[in-house]
Automatic annotation (TrEMBL):
<feature type="domain" description="HTH gntR-type">
    <location>
        <begin position="12"/>
        <end position="79"/>
    </location>
</feature>
<dbReference type="InterPro" id="IPR036388">
    <property type="entry name" value="WH-like_DNA-bd_sf"/>
</dbReference>
<protein>
    <submittedName>
        <fullName>GntR family transcriptional regulator</fullName>
    </submittedName>
</protein>
<keyword id="KW-0804">Transcription</keyword>
<dbReference type="InterPro" id="IPR000524">
    <property type="entry name" value="Tscrpt_reg_HTH_GntR"/>
</dbReference>
<dbReference type="InterPro" id="IPR000485">
    <property type="entry name" value="AsnC-type_HTH_dom"/>
</dbReference>
<dbReference type="InterPro" id="IPR036390">
    <property type="entry name" value="WH_DNA-bd_sf"/>
</dbReference>
<keyword id="KW-0805">Transcription regulation</keyword>
<dbReference type="Pfam" id="PF07729">
    <property type="entry name" value="FCD"/>
</dbReference>
<dbReference type="InterPro" id="IPR011711">
    <property type="entry name" value="GntR_C"/>
</dbReference>
<keyword id="KW-0238">DNA-binding</keyword>
<dbReference type="InterPro" id="IPR008920">
    <property type="entry name" value="TF_FadR/GntR_C"/>
</dbReference>
<dbReference type="Pfam" id="PF00392">
    <property type="entry name" value="GntR"/>
</dbReference>
Amino acid sequence: MTTDAADERTATSKSQLAYEWLRDRIVSHRFTPGYRLVLSQLAAELGVSTVPVREAIRRLEAEGLVTYEKNVGAQVALVDEGEYVTTMQTLAVVEGAATGFSAPLLTAEDLAKARAINDRMRETLEHFDPRRFTELNEEFHSVLFLRCPNEHMTDLVRRGWSRLRMLRDSTFSFVPGRAVQSVAEHDHLIHLIETGAAPIDVELAARNHRTATLDAFLSAQHPAR
């Protein structure tokens, strides 16, 4: 390996390290919405130059987790209920479509894995942990759109999930009763796929599953509506 290639590989690894470090702090809410991302301070904390930190911030900006304003600089994106609603609506469409495309290609092993994850979700209901339930929920849906042949679509889904993690630690913290319904709807999704339902039917079921969570959240936030 040449010196230039080695240097380039080192720079890439530092940029990836900075990206993962920053993203973890944003998603976990250690860096809260509006938190200013000062290059020199972050670089000093990470023990790197400002170059990989700047590259990491650009990646996070592309994901919608960071914004850049003139005379202010980079900061963790501000959030509001409207943004949460639009993110959930968008995710319902793209995740539903990805699941529909994936459904005919899923194997018996894939479905067995999805069912096992859903069983673990059901077990958490007795001593409910919203964060753990949300983690398992992502694992479950990742299996269902695992075989989607459209990589751009699955990338949009994952970006939507990243955005949701920043907007809400877990929607189920606000509507814990929704978790029971969610597990039942997972059973229905698996049944549709196992019985060879049309992809459009699977897509609509996955979309309705996501919007039902949004509707439950909005009802809890605005009970008079």
